[in-house]
Amino acid sequence: MIRTRTETELKMAELYKNGKTMREIAYKFGVSTATVCVHLKRYISIFERRKRQYKFQKTDEKILEEIKDMYKKGHSSVAIGKKFKIAPDTVMYHLKKMKVDTSRGNKYRPKIDADKFNKIKEIYEETRSILKTAQKMNLHPSSVHYRLVKKGIIKKKALNQKVAREKYESFTGILITLFEKMGYQIRYVQERYNGHGPDMIIENEKESVLIEHKATIKRSWYWQHALEEIKTNLPKYSVTKAIVVTTAKKPKNYKSNGTEIIFFDDLKKLLEKNGLRDLIPKIESISNTPSI
Asked: What three-state secondary structure class fits 274?
């Protein structure tokens, strides 16, 4: 059976050719960016899509030196790639070719021996909290979780990757719309669910802000992982501050550690204030849909 082109697919291809991004098209049609990508592959060559994402620019000696200098000053490969309109992987390729140390010197590689693990186990059994254990041991929560699961102390809950990805992509689209309405330009968006780096970087004439967001249920404490991600990502990017945005409700015993956090009710007010009431049901749906 020969597959026929649908009207929706043709509209998606037309919008993409007219300058719309995959995320904007996905938001318009209420589908994931992965779905848009699958459809576009039938109408637009990979060369055209890559050309659109990273316009060709010759990396001469002067540009290579500037790339090297920016990286040594702390700029990320993503930020450098955006400036010179080349892929982050290309930036890393040239840096390695110039024999630049790309480890950042402080790459997180926790060494947990038997004694340290016993201490982790002891704290976890006392607190019953992975986050509190991680904070006391100066480790990332995922490192603590991984080892507790490996030793059979806790059971790993099966995450519905499809639901989690859809929630992440939907929430990203909502925040893009909100921040643009607030007068910000979107400098960077993490296209991949569970990708490396910040979820978003926005900027205006006064400030540049690193955004970590968590599309989670109302009673979840998972947003605290974003605080650890900010601690890791903030020194790597040229921004003035960082904000966590979450669909979780603010806990009654919440105590701020200095990082601005926009909880569900705060986000709802922001949407109302900026004339985006139609997006409120979407964040309510995200906060009521479990991924586990």
From this structure: coil
